[in-house]
Amino acid sequence: MSATANPISPLRQRMLEDMRMRKLGEKTQVGYLRAVRDFNVFLERSPANATAEDVRRYQLHLADRGVSAVSINAALTGLRFFFDITLDRVAVMAKVAHVHQPRTLPVILSVEEVTRFLDAAPGLRYRAALSVAYGAGLRASEVVSLKVGDIDSERMSIRVEQGKGHRDRYAMLSPTLLEVLRAWWREGHAQGRMLPGGWLFPGQNPVDPMSTRQLNRACHTAADEAGITKRVSLHTLRHSFATHLLEQKVDIRVIQVLVGHQKLENTALYSQVATRTLREVTGPLERLGGGHPACA
């Protein structure tokens, strides 16, 4: 349909401009717009004149429908931007508190499982991409956004441009990972898929990068082929990277920098799943002298 048939309302246009001025990511913008749209549907009128009580009723509505804490908080974040920034009505959201989200421990693969997983990857391109996710601890979006020039073999580092939070950082490049990437580069170059200054992992059209959806499909395929029954995702590889480094006694602050965490408390979560580290701890019972009678 034409733009004339579906004109953008002045309020929506202003919100779009507010988000663009602050350089919010595309997914963030989509999420904020969805939050306002869903609130609009609930109210059955424009949210421009909504009150704090309307927001309270909406949050109760979401809770009664069994919506997850993650989704409720996402909705509230979008509405907070709408009222605080676009409408300059801070009082509407002033007393709204986010829902507590129980913190769950991530799934971690053993070193042996990672080896089987990578060996089962469907082709060298995907094996190289999945190896970057594990070997450098990169997020899926960071892996697919890499360009050939981001691999620095002299400094043995990977440049990650505009990762989460729009921050640049350097990730580690191990000799083993470098060899896998070189093998993929030779194969991709022979196939004519590696364009000068182009993507490290091109999509079907070399002008475009591989999509995160493609990489996720390859991840699930590799896990199935490797016979891994744990729930494996791209983020599982990143979690495993950080946990295995911690088990190798790498300083947690170094790991924080490598994975690009802003808060050390996020990195500290891996201390709870580093089982090798736990096994090396001598329990207080072991320090007790003398023998112990067997349980009856």
UniProtKB/TrEMBL annotation:
GO terms for biological process: DNA integration; DNA recombination. SUPFAM superfamilies: DNA breaking-rejoining enzymes (SSF56349). Residues 104-283 form the Tyr recombinase domain. Keywords: DNA integration, DNA recombination, DNA-binding. InterPro entries: CB, DNA_brk_join_enz, Integrase-like_cat_sf, Integrase_catalytic, Integrase_recombinase_N, Integrase_SAM-like_N, Tyrosine_recombinase_XerCD. GO terms for molecular function: DNA binding. It comes from the Bacteria. Pfam families: Phage_int_SAM_4 (PF13495), Phage_integrase (PF00589). PANTHER family: PHAGE INTEGRASE-RELATED, PROPHAGE INTEGRASE INTD-RELATED. This is Integrase family protein. The keyword DNA-binding applies. Belongs to the 'phage' integrase family. Residues 6-87 form the Core-binding (CB) domain.
